[in-house]
Amino acid sequence: MAGPDEEWYVEPSSWNFVITPVSIISFIIALILPKLLSPLACGIFQPRTKNIPPKLQTHFHTLISSTIHAIVVTVIDVYLILSGSLGTNYIFSKNSLGFASLQFSLGYFVGDFIVCFMDPYLRSDMGSISHHVTGLLSISFSLANQGIFMYLITFRTIAELSTPFVNLRWYHYQLGNKDNFWYKFASLSMMALFFLSRIATLPYNWYALIVTLMDPQCAVIVKIYYRVWIVSGYLVLDFLNLYWFSKMLKGARKFFSQKKDS
Q1: If phi over 0 gives left and psi between -120 and 50 gives alpha, with beta otherwise, what is residue 4?
Q2: Angle at 134 between CA 4 and CA 146, to 5 degrees
Q3: Residue 170's CB: how many other CB atoms inside 10 A?
Q4: How far apart are CA 149 and CA 103, in angstroms?
Q5: pTM
Q6: Quick one: pLDDT band at residue 262, thresholds 50, 70, 90?
Q7: Sign of CA pseudo-dihedral 81, 86, 87, 93
Q8: What is the CA radius of gyration of the chain?
């Protein structure tokens, strides 16, 4: 890999890349959209959302902001990877659009975490809470250190490709639309994209991480507790992805066995 720009990475940049207009706007959107804008819009344009059980109402409205976040960062990150804008240096590659993507995700994770923590049902979902905390810490660490490991985080964020279909399936499931075309379409798309973006990419993700941690430059600039934390973050996210995908497979087997019996 190419050597680092020595003038770029001298000291951590503190909050300069963390608290920015992009992260602040994203935070505000993630905070007020599920609490104010989405309930208001759904009450006017989609009255059927009132049929969703009361305890799941907040969860439903967080899916709106989740979908917006997933679409925005996936489009940006796929472009960055496919265009080669981040280069091939896993440690030092950086890009202004990449910074904007990370800052947008940071604001979303903070705002959505607050909304989830305020809701008893969402607060009990330790899988989603762990996912948010892990993503929040990794992005914060990268931004606070001038975008270090931007390539690794950007590539992993492409996993959000499946999120809009996960949310669309949940919405139709709660409304009892299991025979609806959009429910079936969302279910198939969810499984296919979840596998492609989160499971099939596991070997490359771990290869890139190991190559990065074994690089002498990484050993010099990244302290041991950061490296331990990065590995543990990978383990948490991949465990969750494998667990969630196993549940998808179980649901798919049950669906097809019922169809076969009928």
Answers
A1: beta
A2: 25
A3: 18
A4: 14
A5: 0.88
A6: low
A7: negative
A8: 20
